[in-house]
Amino acid sequence: MPAPCAWHDRGVTLQDSPFLRACRRLPVDRTPVWYMRQAGRSLPEYRRVRADVPMLEACARPDMIVEITMQPVRRHGVDAAIYFSDIVVPLKAIGLDLDIKSGVGPVVADPIRDADGIKRLRELEPDDVSFVTEAVGTLVGELGPTPLIGFAGAPFTLASYLIEGGPSKNHERTKALMYGEPELWNDLMRRLSVITLEFLKVQVAAGAGAVQLFDSWVGALSAEDYRASVLPHTAWIFERLGELDVPRIHFGVGTGELLSLLSEAGADVVGVDWRVPLDKAAQRVQPATALQGNLDPAALFAPWEVVAERARDVLTRGRAAEGHIFNLGHGVLPNTDPDMLTRLTEFVHEESQT
Ligand SMILES: O=C(O)CCc1c2[nH]c(c1CC(=O)O)Cc1[nH]c(c(CC(=O)O)c1CCC(=O)O)Cc1[nH]c(c(CC(=O)O)c1CCC(=O)O)Cc1[nH]c(c(CCC(=O)O)c1CC(=O)O)C2
């Protein structure tokens, strides 16, 4: 098992870390790697600590957040930690009645579908999430020169959960509101943007070294609808995050047709799913944008030789980008063999060493 921060001993500081350097498009002596959902169900140590604790309770307990966030850093020797939470945590913190159902995902008791419902979305105060401040403070102390990535769900993905009441395949009610009642839609998106920005600011104020905005479901939209109904809101968030001087990552699934617009929203790094090769993605994003991705998470179920070959291909294509952070094209699948991830981390480091 690799040491938690192999380059710690060499006197490397946080700002010199390969992850933060790659986000800023500076030269690195090896490609940094971390994995979306690196903490969580793929790890037996996660399943042990979570055995008797419901998900949303775990997300509000600093001791659990710290332990779970550290687990993949210790085990895999990845170049960044991601704050353990869920995209619905800030919504729970402002008092919405929602839960996370095992095997389903977030479920909202009373979906938001009209002006009265939207009014229930009050602003988030730092005191609503004091457990975040406490957990991040402890984590940055433990992590030393390994950066902590803060994250939040983006307004469109959050809106879809709130309107549909849970995960949705077609987002029909969400699109009906977006197409049919643009004023209500914009009010909802504005309120969610304010909550999202505040949640990210709390994490950065407590010491997070980068932030990632997950717009996991935005690939359900056409480019035109994205531009008209989502882009202005995410651009507003990224503009304000720009004042905090930490790298901003923007990720969505199924966004091949949206990559240039996603990048227009203003992130420093665009996360790419496994459907678009990184050399193609590099041509679609704005200049001065780094890329993150994009090995197919399902490839980790194939024999190691296949994984290695595909990882090498991702690294080769990633050289077309102005900066590259190795990751999967979406989150680690729950049944992934964690040894595969440790081996992959070592492989990426060795293959990319200059
Ligand atoms: O399958 C289930 O039981 C529900 C899973 C689910 C959750 N939130 C959800 C979903 C929908 C989905 O991902 O499809 C809803 C959810 N959570 C998240 C996203 C963004 C994304 O993955 O695209 C989404 C939306 C994605 C979608 O719905 O497709 C983000 C998330 N959840 C989580 C984290 C934190 C982390 O992994 O450290 C993170 C972000 C950071 C990261 O990628 O690392 C944590 C989380 N949320 C959740 C779980 C499972 C709960 C458990 O251990 O009992 C877990 C832990 C795990 O993934 O093993 C609940």
UniProtKB/TrEMBL annotation:
CDD domains to which the protein is assigned, alphabetical: URO-D
TM region(s), chain numbering: none
Pathway named in the protein's UniProt entry: Porphyrin-containing compound metabolism; protoporphyrin-IX biosynthesis; coproporphyrinogen-III from 5-aminolevulinate: step 4/4
Keywords associated with the record: Cytoplasm, Decarboxylase, Lyase, Porphyrin biosynthesis
Example of a GO MF term: uroporphyrinogen decarboxylase activity
Sites marked Transition state stabilizer: 86
InterPro entries: UROD/MetE-like_sf, Uroporphyrinogen_deCO2ase_HemE, Uroporphyrinogen_deCOase
Residues binding substrate, per UniProt: 37-41, 86, 161, 216, 330
Reaction it catalyzes: uroporphyrinogen III + 4 H(+) = coproporphyrinogen III + 4 CO2
Domain Uroporphyrinogen decarboxylase (URO-D): 32-41, 149-165
Location in the cell: Cytoplasm
Coiled coil: none
Pfam families: URO-D (PF01208)
Its EC number(s): 4.1.1.37
NCBIfam families linked: hemE (TIGR01464)
Function: Catalyzes the decarboxylation of four acetate groups of uroporphyrinogen-III to yield coproporphyrinogen-III.
Family classification: Belongs to the uroporphyrinogen decarboxylase family.
Subunit structure: Homodimer.
UniProt name for this protein: Uroporphyrinogen decarboxylase
Name of encoding gene: hemE
